[in-house]
What we know:
- The protein has 229 residues and is α+β, with helices and mostly antiparallel strands.
- The protein has a domain at 2-149: Gcn5-related N-acetyltransferase (GNAT) (Aminopeptidase).
- Helices cover 21% and strands 20% of the residues.
- It has a five-stranded antiparallel sheet, with helices on both faces. A three-stranded antiparallel sheet has the order 6-8-7, covered by helices on one side.
- Helix 1 packs across helix 2.
- The two termini are 24 Å apart.
Amino acid sequence: MTKTHQLDVRAAQPTDAGKAADILTLNNRSFDWMPQIHTAVQDIDFLAEMIDQGWVTVATKGHYGPILGFIARDKWTIHSLYVHPEWQSKGIGKALLDLAKSESPALKLWTFEANTRAQEFYLREGFGEEQRSDGSTNDEKLPDIFYVWPAPELEEPAPEEEDVSADVSEDVTVEPDSAPAKDAETGEAPQTEAAETASVDDPSDAQPSLPIDTTPQPQPKPVGDQGSK
């Protein structure tokens, strides 16, 4: 058990599934843009499954106090991060995320495009947008955004080439070493044929910043509102 920001942070137990699921249900029902496709019972089953996998960490008020928020993480993949609506904007989501950062060198997650509050939270916490999807692979069929931490570093612009034209006197004429040979019959210089194809870097060949598959995967629940400003 870890005490962070006067909170108790511990691994979730099977008996925590119901209380953690209540937080999930309350958040999802507070979003007017969220399709209500999962029942409260399904939310409990979802949390119980993640707890059985050993993914869930809960933040509580005291060792035996109520659950205020939880994070579900499998290695570097954050599946869920929710804070009870009455305890949002008190640093609980940040505390859970900071713990995940201390335990993993890199993190990744999906969040809905409509969830602007979550986007602000992740950008503020050093995540960077990697790609977007039309939502065809998630249960809710809502457009979503893929974030990674640390954020990919921006490439520095290439230095400008030095202009050496000023070093050449305007009245100097530079003669070519040799002129192209002329055709014996026509008396004209032969034309050089242009290359048929040009090499073009394919953006699709670029690899993501993390050594993982960034293809959107169906998730029973996406990352929700963090409420930890």
